[in-house]
Amino acid sequence: MKQKEGGRGGQGEGEGRHENNEFAMLEVVEEGIGDEWKGLLGDEFNGRKRWMGSTRLLLLDERYANKTLEGLPQAVKAALEEAMSENLAHSFELARCKLTLFYDYWLMNEILEALLPKDMIIPSAFETVGHIAHLNLKDEHIPYKKIIAKVIWDKNKPKIQTVVNKVDAINNDYRTMQLEVLAGNRSLVTTVVDNGLRFHVDLATVYWNSRLATERQRLLQGFTHKDVLCDVFSGVGPIAISAARIVRRVYANDLNPYAVDYLDRNSVLNKLEKRIKVFNIDGRRFIDAMFTSEKAQSITHVVMNLPKDAVEYLGVLVHIPFNLVTCTMIVFFNSFIKYFHHSIYQAEQTQ
């Protein structure tokens, strides 16, 4: 079958719905009609020879079901006229048929568009963490959260086995998210592939953000085999373990004991445990411990991936005696813009 015009209009992630005034038609080119067409054309056409032939034009728009030739779209009439002009022996006949499209046929966005209120933004965007689809639904979506999750789950099986929604912002020292399971199995333990490595993750107890994969890759490209990395907020190890394949040595720390447990497991899983030294202490204590030890002179990079608070930890580095660090040490930190200027001011006051 070849789609000639119009057709199924999918929508991009998070886009609003749009009016579709187009029609769709299919040109069916087939030597004979098989049993699979009986359901499409309706039982009343079974055995009627006028439907036999090599070409059929199916107009997929019920608005034209009872129209005569003159009432058909101009594009359809043009196609018929062109066919007649090419071969005067050709003939055509209008016939009405019933086409039933079941749930499996429709795309995820199309189903959500049909089920949700007309002016509502379709929540088609989600983060994938292993087998888990992680949603950030807006307030307007909450009354429909179960049906949204069910459709997302149905339309993304078997890759997606669990659908969750973040209930509240991250506001605890361990950076864990409050998640509500909306569809699928209730397991939040999964395996993620990032930069060619495998990471075990439990979203109930640790932090993970798949959308930072590109940023992590950009960061890794700046490391060499001579470097020594100090990862202050390593989590389960997406930067620390990936860097261990490149650099000479990694010192990785996190305050969350569950994250440190997974960091140890993931180091072993990827056979890089001998190149990583793991710590489970407060970030300030970790920085102080690193730069008041014999390790300080070897450290070339410090990574502080804690967007809300990372700038505040710069004050700890400021007080480190200059002779204890390498003159080429590079510090990487992430910050949210809304916290950045306030945090810089606070860091300056601690100098």
Automatic annotation (TrEMBL):
Signal peptide: none annotated. This is tRNA (guanine(37)-N1)-methyltransferase. InterPro entries: MeTrfase_TRM5/TYW2, SAM-dependent_MTases_sf, TRM5-TYW2-like_MTfase, TRM5/TYW2-like_N, tRNA_Gua_MeTrfase_euk. CDD domains: AdoMet_MTases. Pfam families: TRM5-TYW2_MTfase, TYW2_N_2. Residues 126-351 form the SAM-dependent methyltransferase TRM5/TYW2-type domain. It comes from the Eukaryota. It is an enzyme of class 2 (transferase). It catalyses: guanosine(37) in tRNA + S-adenosyl-L-methionine = N(1)-methylguanosine(37) in tRNA + S-adenosyl-L-homocysteine + H(+). Its main location: mitochondrion. Belongs to the class I-like SAM-binding methyltransferase superfamily. TRM5/TYW2 family. Belongs to the TRM5 / TYW2 family. It comes from Linum tenue.
